[in-house]
Design a protein that fits this description.
By secondary structure, the chain is an alpha/beta fold. The chain has one domain (about 25-349): Rossmann fold (3-Layer(aba) Sandwich). About 40% of the residues lie in helices and about 15% in strands. The protein has eleven helices and 13 strands. The strands form four sheets. The protein has a seven-stranded parallel β-sheet with strand order 3-2-1-4-5-6-11, with helices on both faces. A two-stranded parallel ribbon has the order 7-10. Strand 1, helix 3 and strand 2 form a beta-alpha-beta unit. The chain is globular and about 55 Å long. The N and C termini lie far apart (about 75 Å).
Length: about 350
Amino acid sequence: MFSFNERVAEIARQPRQAELEEHFTMPAPAKAVSVVTGGAGFLGSHLTDRLLAEGHHVIAIDNLITGNVANIGHLAGNENYRFVRHNVSNFIFLPEQKIDFVFHFASPASPIDYLELPIPTLKVGALGTHNSLGLAKDKKATFVLASTSECYGDPLVHPQKEDYWGNVNPIGPRGVYDEAKRFAEAMTMAYHRYHDVDTKIVRIFNTYGPRMRLHDGRVVPAFIGEALTGKPLTIFGDGSQTRSFCYVSDLIDGIFRLAMSDFHEPVNIGNPREMTIKQFADEIIRITGTKSGIEYRPLPEDDPKVRQPDIGRAKKILGWEPRVNFDEGIRKTIDYFRQHIELVNGTTK
């Protein structure tokens, strides 16, 4: 026999009729659920915007070591978005039963960042990738790794195709980033082969656009910031080294297409339009109308001499190629940094 109090407790534990009806009649959530590590970063925040536009529910994870809440401020109050402040080099727990995609974009990604943060860079490439893959495995989700053209190091093959294994100095100052990403690729393929996780690997080439950090050491914000403030544009080396610049919306489109594909090996995503650093500096001077000159400094150790993606695989497998021309993309980026600088100057007067 139950006491009166025990009967009351038993009734309280039972769902109300309305809850029972909801449980049995409401369909499962139709939205795809995507997790984006590094979700407050330059690329992670743009990827989040694309996923939300495609109807996904997005859970962004970032410890804000290099990410910026300003990149995601416009998402405040969005019912399809949730931000979790967490270091993914530690175990990742998410209570959601349904997760469809895990995009692992967390990592310091500029020379200044990974030279100042060598151990966290190695950890997020190793432990962070392991934890993110574990989450994807547990939730039976598709896993997308943000890898990099730095896997090719200072390449001896030009342009770089995905079957090129690279020329990387593992103990040089850039090795912490290069080898972290190479290890991440190896672990991703191991999870695919051994655990049958649906994995994708995108090798990202130089990308530019709004939400880059002004002082992150990469050439695009460095040249634009110097031009807009009247300082000499700093070229390391003689300026003959080449880069290929892809506008961020093109890159994100390629990544989204890869995530929706059934292809598992690495895919280069970048713009094959190649230019020297000196040519790039001249373009920034021309478009901004600055009176700044050019200042030359010694080339850093292991700095790649050339960088140009072969995007034949992306064209064939994904039907993707960049659409935004350089002049259009760089003007949008300059406008973004001009507004940023004016805002900073306005708040510091």
